[in-house]
Structures are given as C-alpha cells and as structure tokens.
Amino acid sequence: MSVMDKLRQMLKGHEEKTAQDVDRSGDTVDETTHGKYQEQIDTAQQKAKDRLQRDPEAPRREQDNPPQD
C-alpha cells in the first residue's frame, strides 16, 4: 500500500475539511512569501487536492507513473 493510499484511507469522509486545509496551508505559504510564488502555490494546491480525491482504482496517466529506465 502506497503512502497516498494510506492518506486517502485516513482522510476518507473528511474530503471537504482536507481541501480547506490544503487551501489554508497554501495561503499561509503565499502570505509568508508575499505572493512571490503565487502561481506555483496555486498549482501545488490544485494538484494536492486532485491527488487526494482521485479514485485509487482509476488508471494512472503517463506523467503520474513515469517509465523506469
């Protein structure tokens, strides 16, 4: 079981609260950096929420599972 699977299992039923916490954390970092990295923080927030809400049974995209050389 991967770390993301364990997180999803722990957060199951608390999706709304988790999304709020991701937003709040990102906003805190954004305030601390005085908006210097706002676009990167917004992207990271969205990706974090997407990863936590994704169905673990859904097929993964190529970029989520890069080929091993």
Task: Compile the SSE list and pairings.
Elements: H1 3-11, H2 15-32, H3 38-53
Helix pairs in contact: 2-3
Can you put this structure into words, describing what you see?
The chain is an all-alpha fold and 69 residues long. The chain has a domain of 47 residues. Helices cover 62% and strands 0% of the residues. It is built from three helices and no strands. α2 runs antiparallel to α3. It is globular. The two termini are 23 Å apart. The model has no long low-confidence stretch (mean pLDDT 82). This is Antitoxin. It comes from Streptomyces chengmaiensis. It holds the Pfam family MT0933_antitox.
SSE topology string: HHH
Number of distinct beta strands: 0
Cα Rg: 14 Å
- First-last Cα distance: 23 Å
Mean pLDDT: 82
How many DSSP helices? 3
CA-based shape:
globular
Compact overview of the structure:
The protein is mainly alpha-helical.
Pick out its properties.
single chain; 69 residues; mainly alpha; 3 helices; 0% strand; globular; Antitoxin_Rv0909/MT0933; Antitoxin
